[in-house]
Design goal:
There is one protein chain. With 219 residues, the protein is an alpha+beta fold. The chain has one domain: Aminopeptidase (3-Layer(aba) Sandwich). The protein is 36% helix and 29% strand. The protein has 8 helices and 11 strands. A hairpin with a 5-residue loop joins strand 2 and strand 3. The chain is globular, with a radius of gyration of 17 Å.
Length: 219
């Protein structure tokens, strides 16, 4: 049974600065059914070890047939809207407002999957130092979110990031190497990597990440 630490607060207290401070302490915000917002810090915590990850075999088999283009930060708001477009979601106007502010400040990013000029999937998260905090992803066509995830991991690996936080391990993320670690271990990794200086691509198309994946994992 997971040990879930949470702190309730009113939506008006959700600000960009408070959110960044929470991430630095191992917490992230989520909306709840009672109308309140809460900071969460699960134990165990889900992470994807960047030095060991490998795309699932089934995805590697179809990767070379995918007619996708990867991009960074070309449509951050549309990615958030895609992540919110489901029957049940923890996201809402306050989450959209704050993460849009973080994006404008250069702290939140989207990895997008495009096909024939149309956004078909993607993910978004927050970057602090050498840590990327994954928040949510969506797909409108098969394999689109998987493509965005592996492109993200190629970007993080190539730029010296030390931690990819995925919050909880789901069967989908487990297929990409996600594992559970204790909160204590997570906090040590967080402190070790958050003060590092790691670059992130400028907005635009990022073919190099997909090309690197194609050569390393589809042979």
């Amino acid at each position: 049974m997971a040990d879930l630490v949470s702190k309730a607060f009113a939506p008006r207290m959700l600000t960009a600065s408070a959110t960044l401070a929470a991430y630095r302490e191992g917490f992230f915000p989520m909306g709840c059914g009672d109308g309140m917002m809460r900071w969460f810090s699960p134990n165990p915590r889900g992470v994807i070890p960047l030095d060991k990850w490998r795309a699932p075999h089934g995805f590697r088999r179809v990767f070379h047939r995918l007619n996708f283009e990867a991009a960074v930060d070309r449509a951050f708001g549309d990615v958030m809207a895609g992540c919110m477009d489901r029957e049940e979601t923890w996201m809402g106007p306050d989450i959209l407002r704050v993460y849009s502010q973080l994006h404008a400040a250069g702290a939140a990013h989207s990895i997008e999957t495009w096909a024939d000029g149309r956004l078909v999937g993607g993910l978004y998260g927050v970057r602090i130092g050498g840590v990327f905090f994954g928040e949510s992803m969506f797909s409108r066509v098969s394999e689109a979110s998987k493509f965005a995830l592996v492109v993200l991991m190629e970007i993080l690996r190539g730029n010296g990031f030390g931690l990819l936080d995925v919050q909880w391990v789901t069967p989908h993320l487990a297929g990409f190497g996600a594992v559970e670690i204790s909160r204590a271990v997570y906090l040590r990794m967080l402190r070790r990597n958050i003060s590092r200086s790691c670059p992130f691509p400028a907005p635009g198309v990022v073919p190099s990440a997909a090309i690197a994946l194609r050569h390393r994992q589809t042979g």
